[in-house]
Amino acid sequence: MTKVKVIGAGLAGAECAWQLAQAGVQVDLYEMKPQKFSPAHHNPNFAELVCSNSLKNDTLEFATGVLKAELRLLNSFVLDCADKTSIPSANTLTVDRERFAALVTERLESNKNINIIREEVTEFDLDEPVIVAAGPLCSTGLAEFIEKITGGRLYFYDAVAPIVAGDSIDYDFAFYQDRWGEVGKGDYLNCPLNKEEYINFCQELSKAQRVELHSFEHEVNFEGCLPVEIMARRGIDVLRCGPLKPDGISIDGKQPYAVVQLRRENTEGSMFNLVGFQTNLTFPEQRRVFGLIPALHNAEWLRYGVMHRNTYINAPKFLNHYFQLKTHRNIMFAGQISGVEGYTESIASGLLCAINMIKYLNNLPLVEFGTETCLGALANYLEAGSEHNFQPMHINWGLLKPIDVPKKEKKHALAERALSKIAEIKECI
Ligand SMILES: Cc1cc2nc3c(=O)[nH]c(=O)nc-3n(C[C@H](O)[C@H](O)[C@H](O)COP(=O)(O)OP(=O)(O)OC[C@H]3O[C@@H](n4cnc5c(N)ncnc54)[C@H](O)[C@@H]3O)c2cc1C
Questions:
Q1: All domains of the chain, ordered by start, with CATH?
Q2: Helix, strand, or coil here: 57?
Q3: Per the CB 3.0–4.6 Å rule, which of 15, 172, 198, 266 could disulfide with 350?
């Protein structure tokens, strides 16, 4: 059988290499450490967790917990190593990061189908099967090569606005209207604030706690894309003249003092993003301060805003939902560089790539996971996201195909549906 080149032995690459090897595929696994370290990597071992040592919630109450359950059903290698090196931490899966990375490395090194090459890759043959899993801090040489073969730019700085669940918005304090359009119609959901609410919001925003940047992450603020807390610090009316501008919006014939606009993230309206809300506040502060917007007082935050250096491909433009490059189906992207966000999601994409690379090499139909499963929903986001404003996404309920059950039963029903579909798929892999 043909050899597969896997570039990067992080979370995605480690999962991918192991799964391919277990299926009898010969793997050349390239890792540039310890010859060369990204600014956030320090440990020569594989699957290094660069920041938190938590893989987040591990219960079926959260989509990330369901994703883990799906991965376990499909015998994820990296998740198994995480389970074996976990440390107590309530409902989350938290690992001893040193033991975790050491175990992943040891097992990969002793797999006879994996040939480990400690070298930076800066180019590869476009006709060979390759899985690029070089992560959000992919080396510059490789990033430039990818730009050359796709003809598209890799994105290097992320400014992601928060996303709320559609069914957690208080619609007594929100209404649809496009600017200058008819009230009750349009694509934008407006969340008005009166003068007192606006002033209080700006004051809390300007003194809220921000995330400390890594030493290599110089704050890059473009005037057209300033974090909202920086705008609030510049003066009380700055936000009212920017993202909270009320022009062209009216309620009962009167213009509100300020308006936060929400825009649908998907056709079902299960997810809305806060338009123009780039932010670097800590997650608890985003919950506290953005929760002061009357329509969002009970909001469920599906994704928080983040700003950090990130390298990822414009997936809707260049990839299909099997993580294959549209122009070269033998080349796949896994992990954060493919447009998923987060540790567990990176592992998940590594598993998906391996499953479908094996099918591809054997000329068999690729596996469809469907948006009933967290794995399929993540893959679908890559293909269905907006090409013009694509940003990496972690798993959340809003990505899954909606289910018609009362709200309090929703999570349980979604989890049950996802896991039974994975059990079915497993039979056919
Ligand atoms: C600073 C930072 C903090 C983050 N914190 C979190 C967090 O707390 N929680 C969370 O869920 N997610 C976090 N993420 C997002 C993401 O989940 C992690 O970056 C995750 O490790 C991504 O997995 P990956 O396999 O795609 O990449 P990585 O785990 O980064 O693995 C990529 C590997 O490829 C290697 N490599 C790169 N270029 C080359 C090359 N040219 N040739 C050979 N090898 C190469 C690297 O050395 C690395 O080992 C963070 C991201 C960043 C940048």
A1: 4-154+313-428 (3.50.50.60), 163-305 (2.40.30)
A2: strand
A3: 15
